[in-house]
Model the fold of this input.
Amino acid sequence: MIINRAIRALRLDAQLYEEVEHDKSATGQALLVVLLVSIAAGIGSIGVLGVEGIIVGTLLDLIGWFLWALLTYVIGVKLLPEPQTESD
Done:
């Protein structure tokens, strides 16, 4: 199911975003994807930082993801909301 959702997200399937909005289990799947991508970024940092790059790269990627998610939330929900905008 998570692979199917990832493929549909890559295809920008608008219906997927409606499904995910109503599926509370999707939060866990999204967290898993973020963690896996962050670990991959950490592994990619080995060439620059050595073995410590796994930890440093992973943490920096997670921090970057959090900051972008926060910025997206602030802009979309607080600064430029549309009448139908809802967020919890």
Remarks:
- Residues 37 and 72 are 19 Å apart (CA to CA).
- The two ends are 25 Å apart (CA to CA).
